[in-house]
Specification:
Length: 74
């Protein structure tokens, strides 16, 4: 019963997009460990993996966008 009360009192922490990018960049660019960062930020490692999946799925759109033709004169 005491554990149920403890869980009820805990509020979910919402990380901003900037915080998520910071965490992902620490893994992808700085080579920090997934478990290490999950412990540091008190989030489940699967959540970080989920963010990484979303990042790479949405990143393809960047490369699919057409650039304006720079040879055309306005």
């Amino acid at each position: 019963m005491a554990e149920e009360n403890k869980l009820e009192k805990q509020k979910r922490r919402r990380l901003s997009a900037e915080e998520k990018v910071k965490i992902l960049s620490e893994i992808l660019l700085k080579g920090r460990g997934l478990s290490e960062l999950a412990d540091e930020y008190k989030i489940h490692p699967n959540k970080i993996l989920e963010w990484r999946k979303v990042l790479f799925e949405s990143a393809t759109g960047i490369f699919e966008q057409k650039r304006p033709d720079i040879t055309e004169k306005a």
